[in-house]
Design goal:
alpha/beta, seven-stranded parallel β-sheet, 15% strand
Amino acid sequence: MNKKILIYFNSLMPSGGIERVITTLANKICDAYDVTILVKDHNKSFYDLDYRIHFTSLNNELKFDMKSKLSRFFSALNSVIENRKAINSFLANHDFDYYYLAHPLNVLEFHLARGIRGKDTIISEHGSPDAYNLIYKAIKKWLYPKAKQYIVPTKTDTNYYLAKNFPAVYLPHFKSDLLYEKASLKKNIALSIGRFTEVKQQIKLLRIWNSLVKKNKTKDWQLFLIGTGELKKEFEKYIEEHNLQEFIFIFPPRQDVEHYYKKASLFLLSSKTEGFGMVLLEAISFGLPCVSFDCPSGPRDIIQNNKNGFLVELDDEKSFEESVLKLIEKPDLKSRMSVQSFQMSKTWDDHKLLQKWYSILN
């Protein structure tokens, strides 16, 4: 009989990178393990799940008011109290060999309900160390060292946590399950994908693109922003106020995200922090040259500066704009970097990553 694994997370309904990572992992390991996913809201997933995966819910949706830190604190506190009881009840009727947790709040809830145990609890990381608030950092410092393994997807962060005596192991994410092929680069489209939040900083891309348009440098190019979130109206207002309706377009997420990658010729990432940057791995797998802020800490694991794209000093909008302009004005450079991206993506060995997961779970 296959070993049983429980994956506990807030929700799989959003179209974000962490949800993509969790569903991809579940789909990969369900060949060898009996996988159950437990969420707080509805047992629905934006991304496809293998039919063999058990999917259930505590029916206690966690809702955050992203405009109020105080409200988010009390929402989180209420979630911890209610979900501790619900997890206790769930585990009383189910038994598992391993438990996989992917967020500090989930780790705290699980610990209060059952305890973080070094023999069977695996925690994974999806944000850089500076991405969390003080409470989440305290939870990590207290509970993460108790785990069997702490899966960290970037080299920089792995070394950081090892130095602090966390049971960290470097293990990058799997490639998303997409229909990959090298983009033709025939269309003058720059692409950016991510939830519309402050941490993703798409407003900087809007300012950069506005500057390029006003200088008559990109009037035959378009910027596609793919996503949704609390800042969508702000972005729409900026586009309207600066008469950018012909140059910047906002589109909703879609499961077959390759539809957007295949149309694009550049990929842009403006985040101030990234735990890994799944969209960058996806972008290079379609042969797209990338321009990204060199934020902590994921982009530097995927972009080799001046080879398959440009890493720009964090929040240096002028240098970011200059890097984009180089790729727009120099088709040969864009083509060479495209080839480099596609070749680099071919070295991403999902089979090797899966074997490492098996060694951890065995």
